[in-house]
Amino acid sequence: MKMTVVMSGVVLALSAYFAEQADAGTVTYSGPISAQYYGSFNETPGTGITFSDLLSTDNFAAPISELRDVGGSDTDPNWLPGTTLFGATMTAIFTVSTTGNYNFNFGSDDAGYLFVDGTLLAALPGPRGYSPANYTDFLATGQFHEAVIEYANEAAPGAVLSLGISAVPEPSTWAMMVLGFAGLGLVGYRRARKRTTPLAAA
After folding, report:
1. How much is the pLDDT for 44?
2. From CA 132, how far away is CA 137, in angstroms rounded?
3. Which of 11, 12, 49, 167 has CA atoms 20 to 30 A from the CA of 36?
4. Over the chain, what is the mean pLDDT?
5. For residue range 56-71, what is the model confidence (pLDDT) as tens digits?
6. What was the pLDDT predicted at 50?
7. Smallest Cα–Cα separation from 103: which of 138, 145, 149, 151?
8. What is the pLDDT of residue 170?
9. pLDDT, tens digit, for every residue of 164-188?
10. Residues 163 and 60 sit within 8 Å (Cβ to Cβ)
11. Which residues contact 178 (CB under 8 A, 6 or more apart)?
């Protein structure tokens, strides 16, 4: 009986976990990501970047993936051909299907700053090598959210920038799984003791 109850708890915990992952706060972009490229920039480390000398604009499909500047080839979006020192701002508008915490995996080479709904979420002062990290923000449904990247490629020859957004599993789901497996272990332990006790008495 106890084994059945605990197994039911484990099944429910796993079902809740995978159900949550199936609808793990889907991120939906309202349109392409817009980008502006600048010939001059000034970084205030830990705060952000200011830009001047607008050179061009671009739009590219979401979500943002790894972006490279290698002298005008293998680029997404199309970086300025042959340009190795430049600044850029990129803006993405998106919604989420589930209210909760979201993970922003963000990395840049060189300086990169990520603002979510107007608040600085990640500051990666340059110059630096590419090293992405995870940052968490609470997002609500029923409204548009804005992610803005300020980026500066401060050293030749290439540039790398990435941003991925995904839901963070609810702590309650993890707690249910832990309790379920702990209960399963306890029942197994008690059953083993019952089997060995008569032998010890003999």
Report:
1. 97
2. 16
3. 167
4. 74
5. 888 888 888 777 654 4
6. 97
7. 138
8. 65
9. 999 998 664 434 444 444 443 433 4
10. no
11. none
Three-class DSSP category at 107: strand
What would the two tokens of residue 167 be?
């839901």
Q: Pick from 45-54, 154-163, 179-188 the range whose average pLDDT is largest.
A: 45-54
The token pair at 88 is 């850029």
**Residue 101's closest CA among 172, 47, 193?**
172
Euclidean distance between CA atoms 48 and 133, whole angstroms: 18
Q: Where in the chain is the domain with CATH 2.60.120.260?
A: 27-168
What is the architecture of the domain spanning 27-168? Sandwich (2.60)
The full DSSP string for 49-98 is EEEEEEEEEEEEPSSP--EE-SSSSS-SS-PPTT--SEEEEEEEEEEESS
Give the β-pairing of 27-29 and 86-96.
antiparallel
